[in-house]
Amino acid sequence: MQSLLDPAILFFVLGVFAGAVKSSLEIPPAISKFLSLYLLMALGLKGGFELAHAGLSADVMLCVGAAMLMAFVVPAMGYAVLRHRVSKFDAAAVAAAYGSVSAVTFLTAMQYLEGQGIQPGGHMAVAMVLMESPAILMAVVLANALRAKAQAEALKNSSSQAVPASGHISIRQVLHESFTDGAQVLLLGSLLVGFLSGDEGKAVMAPFSTNLFKGMLAFFLLDMGLKVAHHFPQARQNSAWLIAYAVVAPMVHAALALGLAALLGLSVGDAALLMVLSASASYIVVPAVLRDAMPEANPALYFGLSLGITFPLNLILGIPAYTWAARQVLSG
Q1: What is the C-alpha separation between 87 and 70, in angstroms, rounded?
Q2: Cβ(115)–Cβ(80) below 8 Å
Q3: How many domains does the chain have?
Q4: Is 272:120 a contact under the CB 8 Å cutoff?
Q5: For residue 164, is it within any domain?
Q6: What keywords tag this UniProt record (predicted)?
Q7: Is residue 158 part of a domain?
């Protein structure tokens, strides 16, 4: 209950309410973009400062390795479950969305953990960055395979008719688009700046990256609440089975992450963030990449489910639940 009284979460609820009653309240796109860039920059700096302080230890590498493992396990599970319920292209796209991560959910979780007196490692920002792309690459590989199979069947069934181009997308092209995306460049660059400048940089940038952070996050979550209210009706139009997947799958992914964290002996803070990352779904990076890389998939499906259902559930209920579970399993 205490998490619901956090000002940032309350502003998110306010945004949802304003959108639901069709209020004229809106955040100009330029302001929304600035808030997003600020939060990414602040997150990168925080992670870099903490990473410089803690160093690249074996524990850090173990935690990052666990994150990478989850980045491959989650989309593979998602595709295996979904491919019999929707088209294989849609299954690959939804699996990519749920296999990737939400930076806003991660930022909110970090703020929540700090409010609970739990200090996760700065290396979790590195884990977040690395977890974004594997699911996208897996989806593109699947899409290329599906196109090749369809083309082969078309050639087999009709030797006289022209066969359309396969639409093959190279992995190199997807990697370039993923890692040169503005958000990724800013996050990685800020992480490097924080790591190189260390404690001196932390002291200099504290008014920017620390003092303003809570207010900026609250402002951004107000905007996200408005967006959720706008896309929720779209998400509700999906089948009951897909809506159930959007609710249940994040909990399953978080449980798997908790089991892995317990097996590896991760700290409570790192385990909670690993659960959050595994349970979150991308509604920014994945739609931006798959819109061109996989035009056969329905954007309303993977975007609507992740933003309209999974994001608010994780933000309001998931983060405190994952933190509680991590404490129960790993504190003893």
Answers
A1: 24
A2: no
A3: 1
A4: yes
A5: no
A6: Membrane, Transmembrane, Transmembrane helix
A7: no
Reference 272, options 314, 230, 238; nearest CA is 314
Q: What is the chain's length?
A: 332
Q: What is the dihedral of CA 37, 40, 46, 51, to 10 degrees?
A: -130
Both tokens assigned to 103 = 């930076």
> CB atoms < 10 A from the CB of 183, how many?
17
Percent with pLDDT over 70 in the chain: 89
Per residue in 44-69, pLDDT tens? 888 788 778 767 777 788 888 999 99
Let me know: does 328 contact 265? Beta carbons within 8 Å: no
281, 306 Cβ separation under 8 angstroms: yes
Task: Supply the CATH number for residue 78's domain.
Answer: 1.20.1530.20
Upper half-sphere CA count for residue 165 (Cβ side, 13 Å): 3
**If you ran DSSP here, which 8-state letter would residue 181 be given?**
S
Listed in sequence order, the residues at least 6 apart from 251 whose beta carbon sits closer than 8 Å to its beta carbon are: 279, 318
Domain boundaries, position 195: 2-15+28-151+169-327
**Residue 210 pLDDT level (bands cut at 50, 70, 90):** confident
What is the maximum span of the chain, computed from C-alpha positions, in angstroms? Answer: 71
Structure tokens at 196: 């190189």
